[in-house]
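Researcher: Quick one. four chains, 454 residues in total.
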Amino acid sequence: MFVRITTDRRPRPDSLSEIGIASGSNPIVSLSESTYRRGTEIYGEKEPARYVYQVTTGAVRSYKLLSDGRRQIGAFHLSGDIFGLENGGFHRFTTEAVVDTTVRLIRRESLEQTANGDAVVARSLLSMTTSNLEHAENHMLLLGRKTSMEKVAAFLLEMDKRLPAVGIMALPMSRRDIADYLGLTLETVSRALSHLHEQGVLEFIGKTQREIVLRDRVRLAEFDLPA
Amino acid sequence: MFVRITTDRRPRPDSLSEIGIASGSNPIVSLSESTYRRGTEIYGEKEPARYVYQVTTGAVRSYKLLSDGRRQIGAFHLSGDIFGLENGGFHRFTTEAVVDTTVRLIRRESLEQTANGDAVVARSLLSMTTSNLEHAENHMLLLGRKTSMEKVAAFLLEMDKRLPAVGIMALPMSRRDIADYLGLTLETVSRALSHLHEQGVLEFIGKTQREIVLRDRVRLAEFDLPA
DNA sequence: CGGGGGCTTGAGGCCACTCAACGATAGTGG
DNA sequence: CCACTATCGTTGAGTGGCCTCAAGCCCCCG
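Model:
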């Protein structure tokens, strides 16, 4: 327990290209794109929030740390997801690229200006914040009251919904990431997955253990619990 | 003797009357008041959200249940707090009065109409949702990664900030409520409090064990962890 | 190719849970 | 007003689920 997680210092984004996009009748929102190598930090907790981000390809984890290194991942952001949207001026999580990742950036101020004049945009900011809140609320139930098997089953079902692939689920994150998302240790996650494998609920495909085929979603769902 | 360390109280969230009345010439949002006996339900999860609520006096718990009865309390709402604000049309928690409680009600639709025409109101809806999100994010860290002592210490410090009393902290909720808020059992909560009592960090006052005086906030804070 | 990180598996330990008993208090009804 | 009961809280004893520590294999990846 209490092992400090070491992370790379944030390097410059590998690429940054300016794009200008006019969104219908709205004024132009300045957009650019940026890529991050796996494991690199995108922004740190308590930094001023200059941008809002949208994942183009790859995956991002956002987390909080305790002073002794214990880590809680609050969410994974996958292709298409928007993250880094803060109402106050500062980020409340640290975010890192889980794998090589490209994101689109939107200047926060330009977004807020747009929201001020455009009720539709303002409403969509609220609805995005509400989605994040809803996810966090469900995750509190998971963290506080579910067993390790239930947590892992719920995680697999969540990823099954959110990852694009049709037959095969390619998890971008490590066992440690999963563990820190679920409030477990990586060994417990590994054992739970092995157990599900023994039961024939899932199959490992590639050489890495991150490619999974769900053989029986019904039985998997039984390892989780209905609300 | 013991010199009381004064700490800043958390500013109250925007009050409903501010919202309703701030919109100047707009129709006043319809307000009414209602009281609930201790232990009674205010609304249930998945019910249509007809009202938004503000606690006048008393305390409210909002929680989710698993099918086998395990309960996770997501938040306590104390005097002045607003709850039941959902962006979608349905409540995501069940709420109950922890003690006899009076609340002010505001029709959801009238609030939303006001928000549509009034950017100030719309912004305050967003900022309330963001506060809820921020609380949930911090609570995920607590639930996933803190030990029982750290959880209980964090709980006491939170209540110390939020409860009005100056010298004595009168907790409205039971040990079981606290446990279900912290992802523990009531016995573990009780043992942690006893331990803090033995250490001289806190004192029990009344006949009930819910009236507590914090003798040493500094040492209490050491039982929790800095971020 | 060589080193290191990722994953699995086993053995053992510990923290929080379970089960239980008990006293105190609040709520209920006669 | 007083039993009567249910609820609340504390404490102890014992268990167990998850954590810790460790070893070994495989696969990247530099």
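DSSP finds seven helices and eleven strands in chain B.
Researcher: Thanks, that's what I needed.
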